């Protein structure tokens, strides 16, 4: 992919996930706001375009190989990967983190009142993400797989109840924005997941798990917003839908 100042951040990371580290370094949101161009983010962050492009190119030319070329995967395969990797991660880790945060609030909440807000935000996030994932697993992802199967067999597909895949995708993207804002607040409250000097092992473990959860969620959202959803929309356009 040729890189210009009109290239969007989402396209760059979708093409090579190694560039995600560059945008993270500059505090540029590549998942929820991946639609912005290099020109736009540089103007917003007061960064020299040539400087950012140079760092992106270095990352893309790095000798370190990408783990997977997700962009080359078919849409149904990406949907399965997200379900089995990122959805399962949330299901397994969220209850443990809530347990740790509950303990921290009880032991350290009086001295560190910010823990209560962190607990509230994360608990709400876990609840909403559960509902979000169910909508994907029960409605959106099966429809993507149905389209992919129809494409492979050369058969048409019926008009869905939501008329177009873009309708539920719009709602899912709005959820992603909400989660991005929540974790931005959690990062601020935790001083970017840095526990106090005097903190106990539970404190350190909770913050480390929160940071890992945040990183996994960013990759999760990026894969949906910048890779899966665009593929699904384009896939739908290849069909003449019938009722």
Key descriptive features of the protein:
single chain, 243 residues, mainly alpha, 2 domains
Tally of contiguous helical segments: 8
Question: Percent of residues in helical segments?
Answer: 55-70%
Spans where pLDDT lies below 50 across 5 or more residues: none
Question: What is the mean predicted local confidence, pLDDT?
Answer: 91
The count of strands amounts to 0
- Main beta sheet: strand number and arrangement? none
Structural class: mainly alpha
Morphology call: globular
Instruction: State the order of secondary-structure elements, H for helix, E for strand.
Output: HHHHHHHH
Tell me the span between the first and last alpha carbons.
38 Å
Q: Roughly what fraction of the amino acids lie in strands?
A: under 5%
Number of domains: 2
Spatial extent as radius of gyration: 20 Å
């Amino acid at each position: 992919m040729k890189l210009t100042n009109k290239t969007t951040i989402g396209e760059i990371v979708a093409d090579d996930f190694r560039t995600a580290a560059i945008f993270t370094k500059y505090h540029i949101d590549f998942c929820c706001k991946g639609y912005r161009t290099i020109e736009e983010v540089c103007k917003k962050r007061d960064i020299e375009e040539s400087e950012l492009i140079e760092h992106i190119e270095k990352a893309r030319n790095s000798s370190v190989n990408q783990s997977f070329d997700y962009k080359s995967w078919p849409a149904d395969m990406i949907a399965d990967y997200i379900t089995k990797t990122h959805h399962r991660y949330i299901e397994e880790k969220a209850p443990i983190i809530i347990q740790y945060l509950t303990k921290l609030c009880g032991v350290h909440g009086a001295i560190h009142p910010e823990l209560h807000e962190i607990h509230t935000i994360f608990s709400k996030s876990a609840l909403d993400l559960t509902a979000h994932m169910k909508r994907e697993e029960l409605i959106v992802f099966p429809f993507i797989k149905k389209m992919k199967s129809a494409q492979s067999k050369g058969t048409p597909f019926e008009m869905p109840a939501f008329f177009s895949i873009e309708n539920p995708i719009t709602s899912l993207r709005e959820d992603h924005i909400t989660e991005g804002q929540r974790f931005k607040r959690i990062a601020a409250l935790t001083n970017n997941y840095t526990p106090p000097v005097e903190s106990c092992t539970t404190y350190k473990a909770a913050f480390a798990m929160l940071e890992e959860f945040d990183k996994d969620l960013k990759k999760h959202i990026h894969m949906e917003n910048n890779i899966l959803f665009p593929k699904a929309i384009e896939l739908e356009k290849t069909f003449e839908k019938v009722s």
